[in-house]
Amino acid sequence: MSPFGFLADPANWQGPDGILQRLLEHLVYSGLSLLLAMVVAIPVGIWIGHTRRGQAVISLVVNAARAIPTLGLLVLVVLLLGTGLMPVVLALAILAIPPILNGTVTGFNTADPDAVYAARAVGMTGGQVIGKVELPLAMPLIISGLRSATLQVVATATIAAMAAAGGLGRFVIDGQKRRDGYPEMLAGALLVAVLAIVLDLLWGLIGWASRRRTHQTA
Amino acid sequence: MHRRTFLALGAVVPLAACGVNQNPLQGGQSSAAPGTLTVGSANFTESQVIAELYAGALAAKGVQVTVKHGIGSREVYLRALQDGSIQIAPEYTGNLLQYLDAKNPASSPTDIVQALKGVLPQGLTVLDPSQATDQDVYCVTQAYATEHKLSQLGDLAPIASTAVLGGPAELKDRPYGPPGLASIYQVTFKEFASYDSPAVKLKDLTDNKIQVATFFTTDAAIGDNGLVQLADPHQMILPQQVIPLVRQEVTARAGAAEAIDAVQKALTTEELTALNKRVDIDHASAKDAAAQYLKSKGLA
Amino acid sequence: MDFTWIGNNLADIGANLGLHVILSVAPVLIALVISLPVGYLLHRTGRTANVWVALIGLLYAVPSVALFVAMPLLLGTQILDPINIVIALSAYGVALLVRSVVDGFRRVEESVRLSADAMGYGSVRRVLTVELPLAMPVVFSGLRVVTVSTISMVSVGAVIGNGALGQYFDLGFRQNFLTPVIVGIILIMALALLADGLILLTQRVTLPWYGLRTRQARSRGPRPTEVIV
Predict the structure, then answer these.
(1) What's the pTM?
(2) Could you give the number of structural domains in chain C?
(3) Shortest Cα distance from A69 to chain C (angstroms)?
């Protein structure tokens, strides 16, 4: 009954529905959707953080986004756009945008105003203030936003299996329906948890490094 | 003290705390009031419709009854029947026999029912089969069939390695799924894609994301989309009559077996197809569709 | 949108809405009842608390589907049992709220504590009538996050056959029918925002002194971790 039996069998690791392939799919879904979310959320966050405009809208969006049922969003997107890579990536990216946006805006908000004034006083342009002062100071919180987004995306990618996609969630969803599928189900759950923890620790490490760097430069 | 609380909580984190020798899929006790019969259904439309037909007919005869829908695949609801979480479930003769005894040679409808009675788990029995049948069937689009000259399952052999088969997750291990296709027809697909949603499976088939998919013969989607049903000359898929699988105590309940038998006698394949369509296409609830039918037949 | 479907299924939708409320309120209450004492005791351990809070934080890395699936093995329950969902969501709630409680108590300034001692408050009375109220604003902000995400996470239970309003996602998905999916999303979001508003209202009523500074304090305070689903 243990998931380790499932994990220990080399046959379960290979092939188009093996663990390696599912792990790869999981990473591709998560990676692409995070990239997409970053491309959208970081520039918008920088603009809002730098200009201090639209802050109220951001807190509203972030709060409402937390209330979106992820399963419902996935089903909606797949019914509207069909199965395949892009619909899943799009749904996951929608969920990843709020935490990254929140992290970026908060990062800019907490950047020491004195440092920003000083930068302006020595004649830096708006772009220079962003690039040389605000962004480095905001980096730890941007990373913490990315960290939250990664957790959200890796976890939700599991549910994507319900929406006819691949990824490690396939083991969880299919295991429930198959004869003696419980070890498979648990193995899938275990793999997702381990993947999420590893990625989380990785972000933790990057965050620690960036904080050190910020303290040195600041 | 707080230390211990946290150690306990910490134990939740490693999912690997798994030496326990039990199978949680093995249901529990029924939550319904004592004396109430629970009709369970599988995770597809027709099963839910038939469950509602049984429940409606039972209720009309004054039997206390509740319905528990969408329990899952046969793998899951059979256990629920065995542990008494439910007492009645709609079944199909051939698939049930194959599930319980994959090597059984019975192939005619009457032989199958006879054989079935011999292999049922302790405490379970079947009532009379209905004339209504619903078989699993492998389908392709008209265009794909024309292109590759497909009319029966064996025709797939030369092209299967380039094609993807779509079906419910449980099909993967079933004797009439990929294992049977490989051993009986020498058909091995490039890939098997699991679908929780028949509607999405249909869409992917018509979009050519998958090339072959299983449907039920009573599924309106086949006719509506002009799908080609592939013949099964070696009878890999056994005849499937609708049959109620019940716990033995149901037969002892006054009026219960009679109420279900009345539904079994009335139901035809065409009516079943129409009922499925009411739910899948018109989005009526299984309960409403069943109630309407029972009323039209004077069964409720 | 198929309004006829909505009309025909009103009773069913109502029942699932009720179930959804129960399945989300129960874990939030359980988490709150556990987190307050546990968080306080942890806070008393000083810096050690950081280690524990970080360790429990790892629980977030476990996705809810995975936790739902593992519950029967850990609890010995049946896979379809709603208890699995309640306990799993309670665990998430505790992990988040404990952090808020610890942070909340940390905000109580030493001078306030000493003043209470000087006024002759016993330690129990000091904790309940002085420290706890001062810690509550942070606890409330954690509670809001927990409540909103719990309401949305209940629907994931549909994956293992128990999702209250989440089952409309399954239904709509099987039939390629958008109406139930949209109904589910709208009701869940409305429920979440309503609950959020109610907690905010409770906070205003119970902590009337905590007015204008709320916004400032929150933006300065530690951000509650995003909860994963």
Answers:
(1) 0.84
(2) 1
(3) 5
Chain centroid, CA B72 distance in Å: 9
Coil, strand or helix: which one is B138? strand
- Asked whether the domain spanning B136-229 has the same topology as the one spanning B37-133+239-296, the reply is yes
Position C123 in a domain: no
Domain contains C83: yes
| DSSP conformation class of B33 | P
User: Complex ipTM above 0.90?
Assistant: no
Please report residues of B whose CB lies closer than 8 A to that of A2.
18-19
Residues 95-114 on C with a CB inside 8 Å of B are 95
Higher pLDDT: C22 or A175? It is: C22
- Class of the domain covering B136-229: alpha beta
Q: Name the most confidently modeled range: A118-127, B242-251, C74-83.
A: B242-251
State the Cα–Cα distance between residues B279 and B294, nearest whole angstrom: 15
Indicate the residue of C73, C145, C173 with minimum beta-carbon distance to A186.
C73
CATH number of A24-217: 1.10.3720.10
User: C229 lies in a domain?
Assistant: no
Full residue range of the structural domain in which residue C61 is found: 3-108+136-220
> How far from B38 is each of B126, B241, B252, CA to CA, in Å?
16, 22, 15
Q: What is the CATH number of the domain that holds C89?
A: 1.10.3720.10
- Which DSSP category does C122 fall into? -
Strand pairing class (B228-229; B242-247): unpaired
Q: How far apart are the first and last CA of chain B?
A: 61
Residues in chain A: 218
With beta carbons under 8 A apart, name residues in chain C contacting B41: none
Q: What is the pLDDT of residues A59-81, one digit of tens each?
A: 778 878 888 999 999 999 999 99
CA angle C175, C185, A70 (to 5 degrees): 90
Domain positions in chain A: 24-217
Beta strands in chain C (DSSP E): none
* CA B137/CA B176 separation, integer angstroms: 10
Is there a contact between B65 and B55 (Cβ–Cβ < 8 Å)? yes
Q: Is there a contact between A147 and A165 (Cβ–Cβ < 8 Å)?
A: no
Residues forming a β-bridge with B235: none
User: C52: helix, coil or strand?
Assistant: helix
* Beta-carbon separation of C159 and A190 below 8 A: no
Asked, for residue C227, whether it belongs to a domain, the answer is no
Instruction: Calculate the alpha carbon distances from B115 to B104, B108, B240, B249 in Å.
Output: 8, 10, 13, 21
In C, which residues are within 8 Å of B291 by CB distance? Answer: none
Instruction: Tell me if the domain spanning B37-133+239-296 has CATH number 3.40.190.10.
Output: yes
Q: Read off the pLDDT of residues A151-210 as tens digits, 9 standing for 90 and up.
A: 889 988 988 887 778 899 999 888 877 777 888 888 998 899 899 989 988 998 998 888
